[in-house]
Design goal:
This protein has 463 residues and is mainly α. It contains 19 helices and nine strands. The strands form four sheets. It has a three-stranded antiparallel β-sheet with strand order 3-4-7. A two-stranded parallel ribbon has the order 1-2. The chain has a two-stranded antiparallel sheet with strand order 5-6. The chain binds one RNA strand of 75 nucleotides through helix 4, strand 6, strand 7, helix 6 and helix 11.
Length: 463
RNA sequence: GGCGCUAUCGUCUAACGGUUAGGACGUCAGGUUCUCAUCCUGAUAAUCGGGGUUCGAUUCCCCGUAGCGUCACCA
């Protein structure tokens, strides 16, 4: 049985785009094998905890259509799905490790640890805990515990080396000497990531651990824990880190780090997911555009590349435009209506769809094209002064029209251009700006029909 | 700095050890068009460097270089 998971921590405002990438792959892999996709909230850092972040993360995931099978809200057979409610479990296994001699109490103060680090830095050594407390007698430890002394529980890293297999990169070996005696249980009684992730992945029967490459360095610690606890290892897959065009970790740029930002900017969830799927992976037939269902059927973890791709919004925007153009007009219409929350009526949107569907690349661009339908222009992108004569002639010609259609408007205006001795391009630009305020707009005649004769005349006669 | 990972056009990527190193985005130049966009044509540009292995390396190995990750009582 395939069981995958993502373990977001509620320390930010929302789901990180990198987490969405990881979520997509975890979700798709579970779907592909008829398994389960789980979301486990890792809220063990009480100092960085953000109220409501977990709910926001789940909501964003849902808005992208990556529905978990088990999570904190929905529940499931392996709950609770939030680590702060599983404290006893971590303590229990930490105790087991202590009794086996694989872990030990440490009463060292933050100050002492800080000094240790300082000294190592000056001497250009690896900062490592010196196992000061490993030398304590059983009696001393008991005394300290009795007087409620602040303490942590540390993993006792054994000698030797640790090897694990990564799906994408193959076997990786690390000398245990490069590992520090990791804190497993913090002084506030909460586990560290390393303890919690191992215990929970085992208890929740996670078969595939698919996460970002930044975790690769700590896998040996986890492997050691699995061994000590006599648990079966999951399959490890480390995804390359997504980078910004500045080549940095994708964590700097203002909004673009958060998954919901793209939705707010008018990107379609399907397009974002499609684009993300193409990060470090390619369709076997070299296709760029494909559905989630198709992705699920052709994708495999082994085909993911190891090198870190750059997340390029320019190409995402192109892809989003492709999705918009291929979308069912009625669906697009509903999307736009929702996106604008009532600013544009469903009726108006329906009528403008044929005019803008192949012009907009994001839902947000609709506003740039169609704002003039609901707002009379207050400023004009070209100076209309010198055209007053043509304008009033056009006004008369249009006013006499009995039928208000694309054809009749077109004929009347073409004639007006000829009469005025203006080139079509120049004349129509003037009219476009009068009606819309802008040099760039949907097709003019069609727009005028939608706007109605009365409104058009009104806009023209103002000038 | 130690340890680890990585390395094909500007970007995303393709290429049983044998191809004129392919496609897509972008950019540029044309065509269509009353603007913009769409659409069509064409162009542009890459195997990080050095050694091996091999009849033959983008591909396998080593070294170097560069980038990234990681060295917390953060995840």
């Amino acid at each position: 049985m395939v069981r995958t998971r993502i373990p977001p921590s509620p320390t930010g405002n929302d789901l990180h785009i990198g987490n969405l990438y990881s979520a997509l792959i975890n979700w798709a892999y579970a779907r592909k094998h008829n398994g389960q996709f789980i979301v486990r909230i890792e809220d063990t850092d009480r100092t960085r905890f953000v109220q409501g972040a977990a709910e926001q993360i789940l909501a964003t995931l849902r808005s992208y259509g990556l529905e978990p099978d088990e999570d904190m809200i929905k529940g499931g057979p392996y709950g609770p799905y939030i680590q702060s409610q599983r404290l006893d479990l971590y303590k229990k296994y930490a105790q087991q490790l202590i009794s086996q001699g694989d872990a030990y109490y440490c009463f060292c103060s933050e100050e002492r640890l800080g000094e240790l680090r300082e000294r190592a830095k000056i001497e250009k050594r690896q900062p490592k805990y010196d196992r000061h407390c490993l030398k304590m007698s059983a009696q001393d430890i008991q005394d300290k515990l009795n007087e409620n002394a602040s303490h942590v529980i540390r993993l006792r890293i054994p000698d030797g080396s640790t090897t694990y297999k990564d799906t994408i990169r193959g076997e990786i070996t690390i000398e245990n000497a490069t590992l520090d005696d990791q804190v497993l249980i913090k002084s506030d009684g909460f586990p560290t990531y390393h303890m919690a992730v191992v215990v929970d992945d085992h208890l929740m029967e996670i078969s595939h651990v698919i996460r970002a490459e930044e975790w690769m360095a700590s896998v040996p610690k986890h492997v050691l824990l699995y061994d000590m606890l006599k648990w079966e290892l999951p399959i490890f897959t480390h995804l390359p880190l997504l980078r910004t065009p500045e080549k940095g970790k994708i964590s700097k740029r203002k909004g673009a780090v958060w998954a919901s930002w793209y939705l707010q900017e008018g990107y379609l969830s399907e397009a974002v997911l499609n684009y993300l799927a193409l990060m470090a992976w390619s369709h076997p037939d070299q296709k760029e555009i494909f559905s989630l269902d198709e992705y699920i059927s052709v994708f495999d973890l082994k085909d993911i590349n190891p090198s870190a791709p750059i997340f390029d919004v320019v190409k995402l925007t192109w892809m989003n435009g492709e999705y918009i153009r291929k979308m069912d007009p009625r669906k697009l219409s509903h999307k736009l209506f929702e996106f604008y929350g009532g600013k544009y009526s469903q009726e108006l949107i329906d009528k403008t769809i044929p005019l803008i569907q192949e012009r907009i690349k994001t839902l947000k661009e609709y506003d740039e094209y169609c704002n003039f339908f609901v707002n009379v222009p207050t400023e004009y992108e070209i100076d209309l002064e010198k055209y007053t004569n043509v304008i009033s002639k056009t006004n008369d010609a249009l006013g006499q029209l009995s039928a208000w259609s694309v054809e009749s408007i077109g004929e009347a205006m073409l004639q007006a251009a000829v009469d005025a001795g203006l080139k079509n391009s120049e004349y129509f630009m003037v009219m476009r700006v009068i009606i819309t305020g802008k040099k760039i707009s949907p097709p003019l005649n069609e727009s005028m029909v939608l706007l109605g004769k009365e409104e058009c005349i009104k806009r023209i006669s103002r000038n």
